[in-house]
Amino acid sequence: MQMFSTFVSPRCSKAAATTRDFIKGLFVVGISIWLLLPIIAIVGLSASGQRPTSQRIFNVILARSLSGGVQSTTSNKAIGPVTIIEYGPDLKTVLQQTQSDSNGDFSLPNADSSQVHILVFTADGYARLQLNVRIWPHARPVQAMLVKESK
């Protein structure tokens, strides 16, 4: 071990220490930025003073089929009629559509379990809601919760 240390020049150990310090600095800066991103986003949204007109959910949810119910987030009561449209992957092509009944229940046929279904819920006085649904036989039915628009 001592023999090895005699062959390492002091310049190399100084360069290694500088590189190590540089990498530590990058790590600290990276973590700091990662932790500050949510705060920056919140401050940016509140500074703009604008409220979003639609609610979007980009996560994929699991559901037994393309059927279920629609409720209001404020009253937890059924909403009807609500228009439910299934779009293609381009979000422009309408594949099928239906309306919920007065109890908020809806059903869309032809649910293929090998793909993600993009469902968009719209109702007067409520923000638009997008759900990305994958069919899984052991899941519950779709439960869409619409947010009332502020006037």
Attribute tags:
151 residues, alpha/beta, Immunoglobulin-like, 2 domains, five-stranded mixed sheet, three-stranded mixed sheet, 2 helices, 30% helix, elongated
Strand content: 25-35%
The CATH homology group name of the largest domain: Carboxypeptidase-like, regulatory domain
Helix content: 25-40%
Say how many strands there are.
Answer: 8
Query: What is the subunit organization of this protein?
Result: single chain
Query: Would you give the CATH topology of the largest domain?
Result: Immunoglobulin-like
- Can you tell me the number of structural domains? 2
Q: Distance between termini?
A: 76 Å
* Cα radius of gyration in angstroms: 26 Å
Mean pLDDT: 76
Shape: elongated
Strand order of the largest sheet: 1-7-6-3-4
Instruction: Tell me the number of helical segments per DSSP (H or I, 4 or more residues long).
Output: 2
Structural class: alpha/beta
Poorly predicted residue ranges: 1-6, 39-57
Tell me the name of the CATH class of the largest domain.
Answer: Mainly Beta
Order of helices and strands: HHEEEEEEEE
How is the secondary structure organized here?
Blueprint: H1 2-7, H2 10-48, E1 54-63, E2 67-72, E3 83-87, E4 94-99, E5 105-107, E6 116-122, E7 128-135, E8 142-146
Parallel strand pairs: 1-7, 2-8
Antiparallel strand pairs: 2-5, 3-4, 3-6, 6-7
Characterization of this structure:
- The protein is an alpha/beta fold.
- The chain contains 2 helices and 8 strands.
- It has helices spanning 2-7, 10-48, and strands at residues 54-63, 67-72, 83-87, 94-99, 105-107, 116-122, 128-135, 142-146.
- The strands form 2 sheets. The chain has a 5-stranded mixed sheet, with no helix packed on it. The protein has a 3-stranded mixed sheet with strand order 5-2-8, with no helix packed on it.
- A hairpin with a 6-residue loop joins strand 3 (83-87) and strand 4.
- The longest helix is centred in the first third of the chain and has 39 residues, at 10-48.
- The radius of gyration is 26 Å and the shape is elongated.
